[in-house]
Amino acid sequence: MFKLWRRVFQILCLTLPLIFSNLAGASRSRDPWIEKIIQAMTLEEKVDFIGGYRAFHIRGYEHLGIPEIHMADGPVGVRNLGKSTAYPASITLAASWDKDMAYNVGKAIGCEARAKNVHMVLGPGMNIYRMPICGRNFEYLGEDPCLAGQMAAAYTRGMQDQGVIATAKHFVANNQEFNRHHCSSDMDERTLHEIYLPAFKAAVKQGMTAAVMTSYNLINGIHASEHPYLIHEILKSQWGFEGFVVSDWVSTYDGPACAKAGLDLEMPSGAMMNRETLIPAIQSGEMDVSVIDEKIRRILTVYKRFGFFENSDISKGYELDTAFVRETAIDAARGGMVLLKNQDYLLPLNPDRIRSIAIIGPNGHPAVTGGGGSSYTNPLHPLSLVEAVRQVAGDQIEVVYEKGIVTGLPFPEDIFEQSDFYVYRDGKRVTGVDADFFRGKALKGEVIRSHFYQKLDLADGDFWNLESVPETNFSVRFTGFYTPKESGFYCIGARGDDGYRIHLDGVEIVGMWRDQGPAPAKYEGFMNGGQEYKIEVEFYQSGGGAVIQLGVKKVDPDKTPEQYTKQAVMAARTSELVIMAVGFSNVTESESFDRTFEMPHEQNALINLIAETNDNIIVVLNAGGNVEMSPWIDHVKGLLMAWYPGQEGNLAAAEILFGKTNPSGKLPASFAFHLEDDPCYDSYFDADQDLRVFYDEGIFMGYRHWDHCEKKLRFPFGTGLSYTTFEYSNIISPKSVDSIDEAVQVKVQVKNTGVLKGEEIVQLYVADKVCSFPRPVKELKAFEKVDLDPGENKTVTFKLNRDAFSFYNPESHAWEVEPGEFEILIGASSADIRQTAPIFIH
Fold first, then answer.
1. 361: left (phi over 0), alpha (psi -120 to 50) or beta
2. Any idea which architecture 21-306 has in CATH?
3. Where is pLDDT greater, at 175 or 179?
4. CA 356, 362, 367: angle at the middle one, nearest 5?
5. Phi, psi for 479 (deg, rounded to 5)
6. Is 451 or 419 the better-scoring residue by pLDDT?
7. CATH code given to domain 726-841
8. Could you give the CA distance from residue 444 to residue 426 in angstroms, rounded to a whole number?
């Protein structure tokens, strides 16, 4: 049945584009001034305008009064322009369940963007957390569409209130990173509408986002960038989206198909929607020029909404409140960290009773601030966990640090600034590398340009400013030599955007030959002092930013792997308490690839080894989601889910450990015991390699699955510990309503019954007791974060609309509410319901 529906769906999608091509534009009044600009543009100017240039710009036409627009990556900082405030990963923000905080984060990033004259930020990210190993989960807002949508809408309002365009991404169902350009996310219509579209709908209708970015993947066999059903029918027609739709970088595959489907702007350049593809389509009658006009109309209407015509330099006269943006980044970490285990009430730590702490693990120092890829922000003020604990603990507590294992990465930033490579000129060594450029990505054909670089630390203009070298779709082979001064183990590390390979004396030692954001890789091996090694780096640029960096660093000659471990054990033995700083980093969890469920670098074994020495262990975990905890969770007393905390978020971790901040975050995703337990496990991987992944769990993913399942979760959705306790009472809800089109008001009282001030996340779920279609046991429909002093009692009020009680009917292709019995459930997590009330809808 699904295959038949899918085929019908594909046929409709391929035949509908022209029907909807001007629907949204015709439904709203047109601005005469903008129409005059469009009429004055030549066809060539029109087509050029809807293709970006210089990677992160929309071209301007000075003679038409159209300003040049600058973009920057998000969603956790203003990237691409040097150092900037690095905010906690979006999953951290989701774990705060704090809409006011989401607004402030959006506002703070918008403020920094404006100060840098960045008109448009590529965020928020809001794809649904389907499996914990998705390499980009940390950029997103959890497994539930209500939570993700409300947080994204607040973030969007905060950013756009500063006069900066927010970009809701990636539309839609980009739920894995493996083979993302070619793999199709296949699902039934109801699953698409109930799970994967609602967050975007909230960003459009509540957040009023001005831009939406399409995803890399296909949906039911059609690429997102050329999907008329999603772009025209859903986004622009049904939701009334009035902004413009932009492609993700290098995610277009057919120019006319994208144009007719409703894509308004191709980035980073007009690789597919260009003069060679669109003008012949217009001249042949395949496509009317009005299709192009509507794209320009949408973009220029957004310019006018944000005042870019009057003020193209939005940084002019603007003074950045650096204290606000810096404190917002820390506050987001404070609110989003989740305390998951506190055995024997070991936490909070009492500094008057502790004299020594050992911090052990690769993430202790230097600071791990964010996941990798296009969202990684080079932090202005990085603070490691070791530095933060020492700051909060004070001088009376001895804090020692041991890495415990050899990782080699992340590198200090200066590894790429070394100039130890050389070539020969007239028999003499000259510091630098030779480069031969080719058209295309295969390093084939004639050399179009040869160049010499003093060091291999190159980005963007280092390529684009070379005559004969195109902005995209080129490859280059760098050749040089390296002679280590002394024998030992060396780490050869690189970072590239897009693909790269490294050969050492003709043997490939690093292979990252794929389209990707800035992705690092390394090789570790023994090298002889005084021996000359030939190093070749092959690199290609597909689109977006162009980055290739290479460096060599000698691994600490004073420590073997065994010595690292031995010193860590000694530190644990001589300390009263151990904080294990473990998990992933921007190297091991990143865009462009899916990560492992097990933590890297044998960290599980390290934790267990330390547990044999010290009974008081607290794990501070960095990751974008759940990890394999079974090997060590029973051997530790504390677990703080720190996610990726941003530049100074480790201060929040230290404050929570010592009780200066009461933890208040709760999980935005369900944490299973084993990866195999996940409802999506059997349908996540492309096992038959047909580039189709069918979401056979349907709407029953995340806690919706676990409510039906006999198996138990390690940590349920919405779970998080506090140093105080809360009591729920006196739920008030109407017993019946005659019209669901009127708001349903629900109240509940929440009291802080402990001795410390704290914040509680009150979660409201709705259950449809009888329905003609299968429905989850309950679904999150509202939430509020409330702060309470000890003994304080507050009434939390929710207003539920029709959406809270409706489901998507695939037979009528519409959202419906079936009259009957429902139940309101309010609790501290999806598994900890404290108050319930029946409600009958007539």
1. left
2. Alpha-Beta Barrel (3.20)
3. 175
4. 85
5. -130, 135
6. 451
7. 2.60.40.10
8. 28
**Sorting pLDDT into bands at 50, 70 and 90, what band is 1?**
very low
Beta carbons of 393 and 399 less than 8 angstroms apart: yes
Q: Which residues face 189 on adjacent strands?
A: none
What phi and psi values does residue 372 have, to the nearest 5 degrees?
-95, 175
| Residue 248 bears catalytic tag | yes
Give residue 471's pLDDT.
82
Domain 413-554, CATH:
2.60.120.260
Residue 288 has pLDDT above 50, yes or no: yes
Instruction: Report the greatest alpha carbon distance in the chain.
Output: 92
339-406+563-664: in CATH 3.40.50.1700: yes
- Cα separation of 104 and 663, whole Å? 19
Q: How do the residues of the chain divide into helix, strand and coil, expressed in percent and rounded to 5?
A: 30, 30, 45
- Which residues have a Cβ under 8 Å from the Cβ of 252 and sit 6 or more positions away? 223, 225, 226, 258, 263, 266, 271, 272, 273
Give the model confidence (pLDDT) of 183-240 as tens digits.
999 999 999 999 999 999 999 999 999 999 999 999 999 999 999 999 999 999 999 9
- Which residues sit opposite 761 in a β-bridge? 785
Which two structure tokens, joined as six digits, stand for 460? 């963007």
Looking at residue 633, its amino acid is I
Beta-carbon contacts of 62 under 8 Å, excluding residues fewer than 6 positions away, are none
Residue of 678, 622, 680 whose CA lies nearest to 650: 622
Domain boundaries, the chain: 21-306, 339-406+563-664, 413-554, 726-841
Q: For residue 470, what are its two tokens?
A: 């195109």
- With b meaning 16 or more CB within 10 Å and e meaning fewer, what string describes 731-769? bebeeebeebeeebebebebbbebeeebbbbbbbbbbbe
Phi, psi of 579 (to 5 degrees): -110, 115
- E strand spans, 567-653: 577-583, 617-622, 638-641
Local confidence band at 19 (pLDDT 50, 70, 90 cut-offs): very low
Tokens of 834: 């404290």
> 3-state SS of 205-246?
HCCCCCEEEECCCEECCEEHHHCHHHHHHHHHHHCCCCCEEE
Residue with tokens 């790429």: 416
- Rounded to the nearest 10 degrees, how much is the dihedral formed by the CA atoms of 514, 520, 526, 528? 90
pTM for the whole thing? 0.88
How far is 613 from 414, CA to CA, in rounded Å? 36
pLDDT at position 419 is 64
Stretch (H or E) spanning 169: strand 165-171
91 φ/ψ angles, rounded to the nearest 5 degrees: -65, -30
- Amino acid identity, residue 38? I
Nearest partner of 502 among 474, 453, 537, 458, judged by Cα: 537
Distances (CA, A) of 195 to 127, 541, 713, 727, 814: 10, 35, 21, 31, 15
Catalytic residue among 144, 248, 515, 594: 248
* CB neighbours of residue 531 within 10 Å: 11
Written as six digits, the tokens of 78 are 């203003």
Dihedral of alpha carbons 494, 500, 504, 505, sign:
negative
- Residues 830 and 783 sit within 8 Å (Cβ to Cβ): no
Question: Could you tell me the sign of the dihedral formed by the alpha carbons of 683, 684, 688, 689, in that order?
Answer: positive
